Amino acid sequence: MADSLSPLPCDLLVFAETVVTQDADRRILSDAGVAMRDGMIVDVSDRNSLKAGFTAQEELDLGPAMLMPGLVNGHTHLPMTLFRGVADDLPLMDWLEKHIWPVEMQLTPELLELGAMVGCMEMIRTGTTAFLNGYFKEEAVGDAVERTGIRAVIGEGFFDFPSPHFPSPEHYRETVERLVDRYQNSSRVRVAVTPHAVFTVGADALVESHALAQDMNIPWQIHLAESPAETQASLKKHGKRPVELLESLGLLSEHVTLHHCVDLTDREIRVLADSGARVVHNPCSNLKLASGVAPVQKLLDAGAVMGLGTDGAASNNQLNMFREMSTAALLGKIAANDASAVNAGDVLDMATRGSAACLGWETLGRLEAGCPADMIALDLRQPNMMPMYAPTSHAVYAATGMEVRLTIAEGRILYRDGEFLTLDAEKLRREIRRAAKWISAKKRKK
After folding, report:
1. d(C-alpha 354, C-alpha 83), whole Å
2. Could you give the CA distance from residue 138 to residue 187 in angstroms, rounded to a whole number?
3. For 207, phi and psi rounded to 5 degrees?
4. Distance between CA 229 and CA 130 in Å, rounded?
5. Is the pLDDT confidence value at 95 over 80?
6. Is 127 left (phi over 0), alpha (psi -120 to 50) or beta?
7. Which of 3, 47, 170, 421 qualifies as a FRET site for 278, CA 20 to 30 Å off?
8. Rg for the chain (alpha carbons), in Å?
9. Rounded distance, CA 166 to CA 174, Å?
10. Distance (Å, rounded) from C-alpha 270 to C-alpha 106?
């Protein structure tokens, strides 16, 4: 903290009635705030200390609000906002193979960026400031992120069969290298290596892509054990269950992020926890596709690093991490047959610090000096937020995401009290309506 006799300059001071830090001690402060400079947090303290220690170019006093870290979406496919509601109430493989992939192959870079912009808009509005993406033509997502001010790790997905971006897995290295080069000077966009799943990618390509991630010192992410159907496909393709396959290939470590992990044995849970691999839980998508219920409490008990994600808007159909938190907690209790399981503190950790670890960006998801200035504020004047006895409980069980009144990333205000400050919301609404007509026509012709 600055010496009160010589206040330090900062760019922005934000004060609120309650500050949920998610720091190492999970401190919750009353009548406190955050000081920001050059996109970073320089102090988190009580109002009087910050007032004495800093002089700010801008000061915001939010009054009855809860300031907390921006949520981190550990798994999504952002341009799939284009497919929101286009094919619902279908099992995973039918949904993918008959309805999504045929239209996906025809998407243009312009449409992909439009879908990504709408996704950024939704996440900014509902309190997400960073996300881990996997899709194709990922420049569209990276450029949308740069335009809107949010933060992301992007990954070009690949399969054994040709994708819209390259004809074969052999072309993958140059694609990843191009993405890394494109965003090497960005403070908000990073790159991950992204094989789709063990049932769509061969063992050799899995090993080679993992080696590429190691060579470039970037994360490696993959869908894994998403459903019993995927397990059967893996057994047919490789003769091994999904976790068993990655274990046999030496592909489990703290640099690996695994999405879903629904169909697990008790032994596989121990293997994942012992390996240090990060696991992203996607409860709403898993429920909608009837993929199953992930054994979250067992994973937590085993010491696994757990994040939380929405998956894409085509299988959710929201990118709202507040809904994801409440669903994760409620579903986890039913799965464990224990009302104390998957508690609010665990779930908030998953949506902040845990998901940040899944991105390989551990300084996110917390309000601490030296960490990026990414934060949100919830309006405590809303009826569903009154009264408030336990802020963590409110964040998980009471909030819906619509209480978000302020979103800040890298010290920059992206959204405030109904106004988007880094994007043209009305223009996006017009463009997405035109895109929906095009997609509807393509779907009818398939």
Report:
1. 28
2. 17
3. -65, -45
4. 31
5. no
6. left
7. 170
8. 21
9. 10
10. 42
Nearest to 312 by CA among 228, 413, 406, 196: 196
Structure tokens at 399: 């909030």
The pLDDT, as a whole number, for residue 86 is: 86
**Whole-angstrom Cα distance, residue 43 to residue 242?**
44
The neighbouring-strand residues paired with 409 are: 412
SS3 128: strand
- Nearest Cα residue to 432 out of 38, 63, 80: 80
The Cα–Cα gap between 446 and 435 comes to 17
pLDDT confidence band for 92 (50 / 70 / 90)? confident
Average pLDDT over the chain, rounded to whole? 95
Q: Which residue has the tokens 């074969």?
A: 168
Identify whether the C-beta of residue 119 lies closer than 8 Å to the C-beta of residue 313: yes
Asked which of 38-47, 168-177, 291-300, 416-425 is least confident by mean pLDDT, the reply is 168-177
pLDDT value of position 371: 98
What's the one-letter identity of residue 147? R
Nearest to 95 by CA among 240, 312, 260: 312
Provide the H-helix boundaries in 183-278. 203-216, 228-238, 242-248, 266-275
Residue type at 33 in one-letter notation: G
* Residue showing tokens 């004495």: 52
Nearest to 74 by CA among 261, 256, 309: 309
Which residue type sits at 400? T
**pLDDT tens, residue by residue, 258-283:** 999 999 999 999 999 999 999 999 99
- pLDDT digit string, tens, across residues 7-31: 999 999 999 999 999 999 999 999 9
The first and second tokens of residue 222, run together, are 């993959």
- Cα–Cα nearest to 144, from 414, 372, 353: 414
Q: Both ends of the chain: CA-CA distance in Å?
A: 62
pLDDT-based confidence at residue 91 (cuts at 50, 70, 90): confident
Buried-state track 339-365, b at ≥16 Cβ within 10 A, e below 16: eebbbbbbbbbbbbbbbbbbbbbeebb
The amino acid that residue 388 corresponds to is M
State the alpha helices, DSSP H only, in 126-166. Answer: 139-148
Q: Which residue has the tokens 């993959």?
A: 222
| 96 pLDDT higher than 90 | no
**Looking at residue 7, what DSSP letter applies?**
P
Look up residue 199 and give its two tokens. 């049932």
Unique residue bearing structure tokens 């303290």: 45
With a cut of 80, say whether residue 162 has pLDDT above it. no
pLDDT tens-digit map of 363-389 = 999 999 999 999 999 999 999 999 999
* Closest by Cα among 55, 3, 46, 7 to 27: 46
